[in-house]
């Protein structure tokens, strides 16, 4: 089986009702992203950040995977599919994809504020102050914020370098280091970009200017018949 590597961004989940930074003009649920998605924001106002992610978790319970998510599961019949996602939701998992790497963390998990290797599932949607890790530090959202390293980046590069086909879905390709993955796609490998908006990317690629649901359907037509 050929290796199909899929890199997904916020546009992948937009049709499921999860807002993107792009569509909100740099605001996330009416907050400046640096207030709620940076280590500086956490240090300045942890109550706001904790409340913000509790609300995102509660919202996620009402969202369901869309046809784009399910389409990627369908592709596992024809390819060895690996998904690298910028998204912190669990919609790929709930759709049934079997090989997923989260670059920017996972909304439904918490981690130690002193040891990033101590990660825990959140029971329900609410994380509270006074919930501590085994080392005695406050649990924080398991999110890679602006200003923090991306621990899974090396693994993502290793996966990308195995691609026989590389697909980008719903990413503006402006957030680094994640956007640099395109530079690690092997030479000559076909690249597809699915997005209703204009996206700038290095090298040659096939552009499917559609939202994720319809775009994945079109992708299946193109690559399954090859």
Query: What is the CATH homologous superfamily assignment of the largest domain?
Result: TPP-binding domain
CATH class (first level) name of the largest domain = Alpha Beta
What characteristic shape results from the CA principal axes?
globular
CATH topology of the largest domain: Rossmann fold
Q: Strands of the largest sheet, in order across it?
A: 5-4-1-9-10-11
Summarize the amount of helix as a percent range: 25-40%
Report the structural category: alpha/beta
* Count of beta strands: 11
Explain this structure:
The chain has 226 residues and is α/β, with parallel strands linked by helices. The chain folds into two domains: 1-18 and 65-104 and 152-226, Rossmann fold (3-Layer(aba) Sandwich), CATH 3.40.50; 19-62 and 105-143, SIR2/SIRT2 'Small Domain' (2-Layer Sandwich). The chain contains eight helices and eleven strands. The strands form three sheets. It has a six-stranded parallel β-sheet, sandwiched between helices. Strand 4, helix 6 and strand 5 (100-102) form a beta-alpha-beta unit. Helix 5 (67-74) packs parallel to helix 8 (212-224). The radius of gyration is 18 Å and the shape is globular.
């Amino acid at each position: 089986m050929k290796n199909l590597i899929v890199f997904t961004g916020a546009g992948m989940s937009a049709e499921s009702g999860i807002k993107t930074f792009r569509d909100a003009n740099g605001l996330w649920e009416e907050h400046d992203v640096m207030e709620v998605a940076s280590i500086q924001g956490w240090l300045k106002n942890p109550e706001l950040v904790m409340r913000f992610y509790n609300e995102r978790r509660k919202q996620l319970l009402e969202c369901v995977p869309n046809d784009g998510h399910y389409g990627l599961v369908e592709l596992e019949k024809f390819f060895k599919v690996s998904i690298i996602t910028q998204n912190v939701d669990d919609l790929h998992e709930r759709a049934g994809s079997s090989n997923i790497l989260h670059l920017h963390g996972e909304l439904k998990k918490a981690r130690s504020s002193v040891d990033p290797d101590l990660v825990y599932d959140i029971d329900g949607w609410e994380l509270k102050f006074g919930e501590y890790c085994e080392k005695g530090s406050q649990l924080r959202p398991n999110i890679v914020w602006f200003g923090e390293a991306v621990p899974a980046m090396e693994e993502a590069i290793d996966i990308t370098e195995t691609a026989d086909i590389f697909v980008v879905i719903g990413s503006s390709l402006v957030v680094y280091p994640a956007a640099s993955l395109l530079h690690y796609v092997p030479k000559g490998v076909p690249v597809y970009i699915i997005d209703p908006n204009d996206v700038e990317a290095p090298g040659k690629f096939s552009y499917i200017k559609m939202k994720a649901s319809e775009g994945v359907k079109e992708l299946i037509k193109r690559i399954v018949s090859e």
